[in-house]
Amino acid sequence: MMKIDILTLFPNMYKGVFDESILKRAIDNKKVQISIHNFRDYSLDLHHKVDDTPYGGGNGMVLTCQPIFDCVKKLRTDKTKVILLTPDGVLYKQKMAYDLAKEEHIIFICGHYEGFDERIRSICDLEISIGDYILTGGELASMVLVDSIVRLIPGVIEEGSHLNDSFNGNLLDYPTYTKPRVYEGMEVPEVLLSGDHKKIEQYRYQESLKRTKERRPDLLD
Ligand code: ADE
Q1: In angstroms, what is the span from residue 142 Cα to ligand 1's centroid?
Q2: For the segment 56-103, what is each residue's pLDDT rounded down to a tens digit?
Q3: Ligand 1 mean position to 184 CA, how many Å?
Q4: In the chain, which ranges are continuous DSSP H helix?
């Protein structure tokens, strides 16, 4: 079973996210074990302080090393991948989700406030950003990663149902339809009703290609 530990100052943010749908089922079926740790509990400071003012001056507070270092030291083994969520990390892609789904144990560290002590990077194997925008902290990013990784663990969703995901083979998804055949005058493409599997496959590939060219030409480079 894959183990995921999340280090955060806001454990309540995770309530609900892991309690619904596919993630809940994956946890119930022991495909993954997810634990949330408030690293404030690891602070040796009398008042459980986790941040301080930046050396050299500047705005805001900076997360200190000690609580996060001690929490990671307690949780990590020689098989652990420690991942820091930060907007200056490598941009997250589906390929990385496939790689991370093979890990035995992942620790996610959520940064917060105006920043964290640079030395925290020294205990991380990987730094990931989920996009070129700034969140208030790494929590939402860690949820995105957990969701995208756990669905790829074998047995979590029907085998093959992620084979056609957008981004596999660098193409966006083809259009899909369900009943009724005509809705508000909009018809389901004839080829999908033909029963000709070869033709359908060709149609879908062409539509994927067309959509990718129109919307995400960068994926074809
Ligand atoms: N923390 C703040 N913004 C982030 C982002 N875009 N990705 C990952 N972690 C973050």
Answers
A1: 9
A2: 999 999 999 999 999 999 999 999 999 999 999 999 999 999 999 999
A3: 41
A4: 21-28, 65-75, 94-100, 139-150, 197-215
